[in-house]
Design brief:
about 210 residues, mainly alpha, Helix Hairpins, two-stranded antiparallel sheet, 2 strands, about 75% helix, about 10% strand, rod-shaped, coiled coil
Length: about 210
Amino acid sequence: MEIKSTAPTKANLIAAKDHLSLLQGGLDILDKSRKALIQAHDSKIKQRDDLNEEVNETIEKVSKNFKRAMITMGESKLDDISRIVPVDNSISLQEDEFMQTKIYNINFEPSKLNLSYSFYETNEAFDVALLSFNELKDKIYKLAELDTTINNLDRQIKKTSKKVNSLEKVQIPKTEERIKTISALIEEKEREEFSKTKMVKDKKIRDQKNAAD
C-alpha cells in the first residue's frame, strides 16, 4: 500500500506496526540463515583448497607410479592389461539439504586388487600404480562433491542476500515511513479535533455569558 493512499486511522497504524514486526522477524531469520550459509561456504572452500593440494600431490604420485610400471612392463603390455581391468561402478550419490540448499555426498568404495588380470603378466609396480590411481579417484570424487556444494551454497547466499537487502533497504524503511506518516496524520487530525472542540466550548461559554448579561 502506498503511503499517500494510507488512511490515517489507528487500525491502519496498528496493521502497519504489525507488518513491520513481521518484516523485522523475517529479516532476523534470513540474516541468521545467510550467516550460517556463509560459514558453511567458507568451511567447504577451505576443505576444497586443502583437498586440491592433496589431489595435485596424488596426481604426481600416480604419474610416477605408472611411468615406473610402463618402464618395467612395457607400454604395449600395460595398454593390453588396462583394457581388461573392469570398470569401477562403486560410486553412489546421496542428496541432502542444508538451509534449503542441496548438498551432495559422493560415496566411493576403492576397489581392491583382484584377479581380473594375471599376476604373472604384471609386477609390483603395476599394483602400486593401480592402488594409487584408486586413491586419486577417491580424492577427485570428493573434490567434485565439494565444488558442487560450494556452487550451490554460493547461489543460495546470493539469493538470501538479495532478500535481506530488499527487507533492509526497501520494505522495512518503506513500512517505517508509512508508520511515521500515519502517526503524523493522526496527530494532526487529533490537534484539529481538539481545536474544534475548544472553539465549540469557548463559544458555548461566551453564549452562556452573554445570556446571563
